[in-house]
Write a structure and sequence with these properties.
The protein is α+β, with helices and mostly antiparallel strands. It folds into 2 domains: 154 residues, Immunoglobulin-like; 69 residues, no CATH class. It has 8 helices and 8 strands; from the N terminus they run H-H-H-E-E-E-E-E-E-E-E-H-H-H-H-H. Strands 4-1-7-8 form a 4-stranded mixed beta sheet. A 4-stranded antiparallel beta sheet has the order 3-2-5-6, with no helix packed on it. Helix 6 crosses helix 7.
């Protein structure tokens, strides 16, 4: 199983942008906290995505200082993300003033990562007291930057669309369209684990694994060894699925099971 876990990032995460390093870290949070001016507070950066069919990969910069450009956040935003993925940090004045600007650079992905890079610098709208900075991505490459103490599910959400992303999508589109990129199974549930096992261990998953190792220029004996190890890991997981995982249907433990 140790060998299998080593490749979890490659084999188990379906998102196109997955496994890329995000900008924020605990060390950066500590460093940022030590640089907060007396007239400011440190707040988190969060993301909301009203696109049902697009992931967003972004980097955000604090460009309030004119010539200086400081990266404050970056990461992957899944379709219909409704906030909660806090990252650190940006300093906001305790009293709003003009000229607080956030620049965002982003790419979009559906089945493939699109080559276009979008850039937009927006002034943070007036706030009564500083809250977390939200980067809100809309269809047609539109962006909104706001400071808020609440997320889209709250009645006081200040974004231009008041409903959470999924609810807003369902008001204008079919359920099939809105649900297309959402996980079918609850995160971390036995059914979710079984689905990930199948995606990794079925014929398509094995071909992806083979292509991955070929790109890493392994020798034939090394390649055979990796394939053997991962096959054994798949069989072990299948055994655990059948004997221990509380899946809703034991047929889901078959590598070739289809819903």
């Amino acid at each position: 199983m140790a060998v299998f876990k080593k490749y979890l990032c490659v084999l188990f995460v379906p998102l196109l942008f997955a496994c890329q390093k995000e900008i924020s870290s605990d060390e950066e949070a500590v460093a940022a906290a030590s640089k907060v001016p007396a007239d400011s507070v440190s707040v988190s950066v969060d993301e909301v995505n009203y696109n049902a069919d697009l992931e967003i990969k972004y980097t955000a910069f604090d460009v309030s200082g004119g010539g200086s450009t400081e990266a404050i956040a970056g990461g992957i935003v899944v379709p219909l993300a409704a906030g909660g993925a806090k990252s650190c940090c940006v300093n906001l004045p305790k009293v709003w003033r003009p000229g607080i600007k956030i620049k965002v650079e982003w790419q979009e992905a559906d089945k493939e990562i699109r080559p276009e890079i979008y850039r937009q610098a927006l002034e943070l709208p007036r706030y009564q007291k500083p809250g977390d900075v939200y980067l809100v991505f809309y269809p047609e490459h539109q962006l909104e930057v706001i400071a808020s103490h609440v997320e889209p599910s709250h009645p006081d959400w200040p974004g231009k669309i008041k409903e959470p992303p999924l609810e807003a999508c369902l008001q204008k589109n079919t359920k099939k369209f809105c649900m297309q990129s959402l996980p079918k199974y609850g995160w971390g549930t036995p059914d979710w684990k079984a689905n990930n096992m199948r995606e990794t261990c079925n014929e398509k998953g094995r071909k992806s694994e083979l292509n991955f190792w070929k790109m890493n220029s392994l020798s034939k004996p090394e390649l055979d060894e990796e394939i053997k190890n991962n096959k054994n890991s798949c069989l072990l997981m299948q055994k655990e699925c059948l004997e221990k995982w509380n899946v809703s249907n034991k047929k889901m433990c078959s590598f070739e099971y289809e819903d």
